[in-house]
Amino acid sequence: MLYNEIVDVYEKIEATTKRLEMTDLLVNLLRKTPKEVIDKVIYLTQGKLYPDYYGVEIGLAERLALRALSEASGMTVSELENKLSEMGDIGLVTEYSLQRRKVKTLTEFLSSSKKTQLTVLEVYNTLDEIAKTSGEGAQDKKIRLLAGLLKKATPREGKYIMRTVTGRLRLGIADMTILDALAITFAQSKEARAKIEKAYNVSNDLGEVARRLAEEGLSGIDKIKIVIGRPIRPMLAERLSDAREIMEKLGGKFAAEYKYDGERIQAHKSGGNVILFSRRSENITHHYPDVCELIRSGLKAKEAVVEGEVVAVNTQTGEFLPFQELMHRRRKYGIEEAMEKYPVTLFLFDVLYVDGEEMLDKPYLERRRKLEEIVIEGERVKMATSKIIKDVEELEKFFMEAVEIGCEGLVCKSITSESIYQAGARGWLWIKYKRDYKSEMIDTVDLVVVGGFWGKGKRAGSYGALLMAAYDDETDTFKTVCKVGTGFTDEDLEKLPSILEPYRIPHPHARVDAKLEADVWFTPAIVLEILGAEITLSPIHTCALNKIREGAGLAIRFPRFTGKYRTDKKPEDATTVREIIEMYKMQLKKIEER
Ligand code: AMP
């Protein structure tokens, strides 16, 4: 397969903002992709080489990439840098410079016109080699490899190769769009779509799902099982802030567990080996050597996958500390010291696999029993506190107890025979019940930065405000809900431009729905915790547009940044539009009750 063929599709995808069109384009691409390279085509289309959990990024520094481009195009590095500051996109600079590439001699001319076209495999393998090259002389070798590739590339191919190699290929294709395209290409039924999605949720690897489908059809999908060391996409909770509604949703009887305010961990144990994954399925083993030890010695099973919340504690008082304290663990060096200064306790709440047995399809109570069976509780590793709840009073009392000891509230969990572990899904089997009013204010929400407004005066050079969006899981888009300009410290203001720079794009992102015109736009990536005073109807925001009133959306009034960068959340984990509607309705109810 020629690289040119996928580049054709990239160009068309870039030109559309419609998800259905994107899906059609992907389907056409998948139909002509040979099964031998289908996994690679999927990764490349997502701007990567492997599934995320591998933790290997191509991300070649721009400086090095420009050196390679200089070699391939004949322009000097400083000429290229000037062009880059003028055009703002390394892909366009590449296209421009390769178009100007001069053919110097007759021999070069003859060999260039005979030049063979780049294949997908050649591009992939070279990028793979660049990503994996390390150690002495690595920089030069990377430059050589990339220059070699660019010399063979057409200007248009070069544009995408450079964006990919510097980690800037952002076509805006959501995982769900790729799943849709796979389902249309390889199977048509609804059940097949669900099966494909489940395989993705268990494997976290769209490339593997595609390869199995292409090679063996739907039956290949059944062979995708839990593998120790490969993260399973976590189950997520819906949210309600009314106890009665929770009772109703969960059928009058359910389990409530303390909702610890820490970092979610999925631990994979195989004998003495332990790997920890974050909620975003990143490998975070090295942040928590102490938690690895707790898993190693605290689980009776030889092989297991369990989930829990790691919470920072004050060893003097036994008090839980705020979530931010765990940020001290996000470092490469000095972990031993951080472990001593910021000790943690692990609260386990689920089990997904034990010694050859997959637990995903078992109901909650059976999983909980299994977990109790294999956990050896101690000072630092405990079962999440849980209780079976049968009425509202009990629920409220348990909620107060949880808040009293420093938890955020409760996670209420269905106990019916259907209460499976829904990997990768937000559903009504788990419902979070958090404090809704903190001193007259609504609870915090986690919103995604999608745009920015330049600051003036003291804030010149940074942002005066950020355009924030909630996640709409029905359409897989981001809807704006407020402009936030308060709560940022001087330090925040200083670092915001560089935090946001990698995500800057020249127009609103394909998955962002905004009426406001921001000065700059961003790919949805950064999630911030925001505290607001109330939710109001708004003519300028697109969150819940036309849902409550025709022509109006919902906005958060007087938003302020709490100081929490929710680095543990993906943009899709942000507060959803549905949750904001729910909060708005709750607020109305409270006002009526007064
Ligand atoms: P949120 O981060 O607000 O969407 O709430 C869901 C998160 O609560 C999960 O991802 C877990 O990190 C955390 N959590 C804390 N305690 C529990 C528990 N007992 N069961 C499930 N999730 C919990």
Tally of discrete structural domains: 3
What is the average of the pLDDT values? 91
CATH superfamily caption of the largest domain: DNA ligase/mRNA capping enzyme
Ligand types: adenosine monophosphate
N-end to C-end Cα span: 67 Å
Detail the poorly predicted runs: 437-441
Helix amount: 25-40%
Named at the architecture level, the CATH assignment of the largest domain is 2-Layer Sandwich
Number of strands: 23
CATH topology of the largest domain: the name is D-amino Acid Aminotransferase, Chain A, domain 1
Quick one: overall form?
globular
Which value, in Å, is the CA radius of gyration?
26 Å
| Count of discrete alpha- or pi-helical segments spanning 4 or more residues | 21
Biggest sheet statistics:
8 strands, mixed
Class of the largest domain, according to the CATH hierarchy? Alpha Beta
